[in-house]
Amino acid sequence: MTNDDIPTSQKTRGLVNSLQRNLHWGKSINASLIMINAVLVFNNNGQPRLTKFYSQLDTVTQQSLLSQIFALVSARPASACNFLPLPPLLAPSGATTSPDAPAQITYRHYATLYFILISTSTESPLALLDFIQVFVEALDRLFENVCELDLIFGFETLHAVLGEMVVGGVVVETNLDKIVDGVRTSEGTKGKRKAVNSRDSGASLGRGSGFAALGWATGTGSSWR
Q1: According to the model, what pLDDT value does residue 66 have?
Q2: Which of 38, 125, 141, 164 has CB atoms 3.0–4.6 Å from 83's, for a disulfide?
Q3: CA torsion 9→11→17→21, rounded to 10°?
Q4: Where do the AP complex mu/sigma subunit domain residues begin and end (predicted)?
Q5: CATH topology of domain 20-204
Q6: Position with higher pLDDT, 101 vs 198
Q7: Three-class SS string for 146-167?
Q8: Is residue 7 within 8 Å of 90, Cβ to Cβ?
Q9: Among positive and negative, which fits the CA dihedral 56, 61, 67, 72?
Q10: Is the pLDDT of residue 93 over 80?
């Protein structure tokens, strides 16, 4: 039997199964492809440290959406759940019923930074929380006890980590070792050098003490929720 003799449905299932075999959450295999519409990082003052949209939006809509999302997330108490509905800015003529429309915010708060994902309502919030955790752990390995200042001066490494994990809005890798190795291979020693330079720069500007380490590993105090 040639490839042309295989039904299209079987070809599609084969592609999905192949992708699923390469999509890991920790040591387990995820049951479906995870789609993300945007990845955002804000500090506690609402200043964006990362804004990556995988859906086309005009600049005005993006800015309005960023302001509304930060206002919603920053006002939530530490005891609140980590996912909530998206502000209805992305529906140009009222609410939309499309399952592919962005509709959900999932976030985690680490020390001075909010890590936020925008996705459809069909995505698992728990899987998205795991994605954020892996993202932060990868940054922590590369920057060695990462803090906000590292993301400012090491923005290329920040984007490189995200690029290893997400391509075109599809999560393609969540294995921590593979992500870190991929970034180190592409950047050589630049990631570690940027981390050192960023801390030196913060100290010389007298701002070093204002950028707390994210503290993802211990989860003590207000370092994360």
Answers
A1: 93
A2: 125
A3: -170
A4: 35-185
A5: Beta-Lactamase (3.30.450)
A6: 101
A7: CEHHHHHHCHHHHHHHHHHHEE
A8: no
A9: negative
A10: no
Phi and psi dihedrals of 186, rounded to 5? -75, -30
Give pLDDT tens digits for 167-213.
999 999 999 999 999 999 988 755 454 544 545 544 333 333 345 56
Write out the DSSP string of the chain. --GGGS-HHHHHHHHHHHHHHT-EETTEEPSS--B-SEEEEEETTS-EEEEEESS---HHHHHHHHHHHHHHHHTS-TTS-SEEEPPTTS-BTB----TTSEEEEEEEEETTEEEEEEEETTS-HHHHHHHHHHHHHHHHHHHTS-BHHHHHHTHHHHHHHHHHHEETTEE----HHHHHHHHHHHHTTHHHHHHHHHHHHHHHTT-GGGS-B--TTT--TTSB-
Is residue 194 exposed (0-12), middle (13-18) or buried (19+ Cβ within 10 Å)?
buried
